[in-house]
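Regression test case RT-17, inverse folding.

Input:
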């Protein structure tokens, strides 16, 4: 994470994935990234919602939901990596301003190659 981002990075790795979570100073989740061979999310164009950038490329976000919290705005996106693995990104926010903040934080990321077994 960039030093001045105000975010703390947490990681959990298993045999088949690397789960990363960016947490704000107040303890709230900024966003989550999952590096995996097989994503758990399948984009559906009918759910296209927002566009931002990541690693210099345009990034399409898809509307999703969280059971039990219908007011929460949830967005997911997938990026195919050079090694054939997938980066799945998830943002949860209370409003459009929160979504845009998270999109900006993600656009500032620089992802180094990750080894997924």
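Golden output:
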């Amino acid at each position: 994470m960039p030093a001045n981002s105000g975010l703390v990075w947490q990681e959990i790795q298993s045999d088949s994935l690397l789960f990363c979570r960016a947490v704000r100073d107040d303890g709230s989740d900024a966003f989550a990234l999952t590096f995996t061979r097989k994503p758990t999310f399948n984009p559906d164009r009918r759910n296209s919602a927002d566009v931002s950038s990541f690693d210099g490329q345009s990034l399409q976000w898809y509307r999703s939901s969280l059971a039990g919290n219908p007011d929460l705005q949830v967005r997911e996106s997938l990026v195919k990596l050079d090694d054939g693995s997938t980066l799945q990104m998830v943002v949860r926010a209370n409003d459009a301003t929160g979504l845009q903040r998270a999109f900006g934080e993600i656009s500032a990321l620089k992802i180094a190659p990750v080894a997924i077994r």
